[in-house]
Amino acid sequence: MTRQNLEKLLLKSFRKFDKEIVSLNKQQLSKGEDNEGDLFGRYSSATQEYAKNAIVKPRKSKVPNEPYNFEWTGGLFDGMYLLSTVTSVEIWSKDVKTPLLNIEYPNLFGLNPDNMDKILSEKVEPYFISKVRKQLKI
To answer: What total number of domains does the chain contain?
Structure first.
């Protein structure tokens, strides 16, 4: 197997588990955690008042002193997917606010170290190894 074939197979291995990867990222965001496991911040009393008076009601309450949950309208979560190119995979969202959120919160997308270890050890690595073995006939 060539290096190029191995790289393609590795990207395919990540794409195979796209739903699980996106789900883990959503779980992190629901808890207010970025891709390094740190909190983005906590809601203030002013945020809760703003949410009460907004035309669009938040999908998930914004309780003072609770971590940010990024579920104001649900658009970010509903639009999340694994964006795949020839050389990479990354998590993104179709929501129109995504580019702005990504500037404001550069660690928004991606798995924290624990979740990355989990998806690699439980899903991606076993799948990748089985495919390599199959191609090498071992």
So the answer is: 1
Helical H segments across the chain, by residue range: 3-16, 18-30, 45-53, 75-78, 98-104, 113-119, 125-136
> Residue 55 has which token pair?
């035309």
Which residues is 82 bridged to in the sheet? 91
Closest CA to 32 of 47, 19, 54: 47
Does the pTM of the predicted model rise above 0.70?
A: yes
Q: Could you read off the pLDDT tens digit of each residue along the chain, which spans 138 residues? A: 899 999 999 999 999 999 999 999 999 999 999 999 999 999 988 877 777 777 777 788 888 999 999 988 899 999 999 999 989 999 999 999 999 999 999 999 999 999 999 999 999 999 999 999 999 999
Range(s) of the domain holding residue 68: 3-136
